[in-house]
Amino acid sequence: MILPIVAYGNPVLRKVGKEIAPDYPGLAELVTNMWETMYNSNGVGLAAPQINRDIRLFVMDSIQVFDNMEDEEEKNQYPGDEGYKGVFINAQVLSRGGGEWAYNEGCLSIPKIREDIIRQETVHIRFQDEHFVEHTKVFKGITARIILHEYDHIEGKLFIDYLKPLKKNLLKRKLSDISKGKVSVDYKMSFYSV
Prior knowledge:
The protein is α+β, with helices and mostly antiparallel strands. The protein has a single domain, classed as Peptide Deformylase (Alpha-Beta Complex), CATH 3.90.45.10. The protein contains six helices and seven strands. It has helices at 27-40, 63-67, 72-75, 141-154, 165-170, 172-179, and strands at residues 5-6, 45-47, 57-61, 85-107, 110-128, 134-140, 189-190. The radius of gyration is 16 Å and the shape is globular.
């Protein structure tokens, strides 16, 4: 089932997610719905807060990013990153490393806004998959960036938080419009009203 994506302005996007256990109600169905929602929205990642759940869960698929790249030269810009598709439960970043690099990021909860965001090249992360098997892995490049973006969501942080104050100030009106539902997208959204 395709779920509505929570728009900027909803307080759930600013909450630190709670850890969950294997007995979390309806988890398998929730994960299935998150995949369907993410792909329907043309996203590469989706975190639980974006579907109004304040839990430490996100899904991501960077393999499709590489599948959509035009040529080998473009793919070769990200050595050591072949992409990854997976479910991340109760994730904890252990460290970030490598050089910092800018990439034009967007967010399904903040549609029509894309900005160059600087992040580090690698992430060392511990997480559980959908079967609650624990993994500790290092990811690089685009995959690391998507993971860090989604991880920020479960920490109550948004990509626009990395912008300089002047740049963020210039986006105030657009952000206000998004929070009021004055934005047109081709996927289901949920707007917060006080």
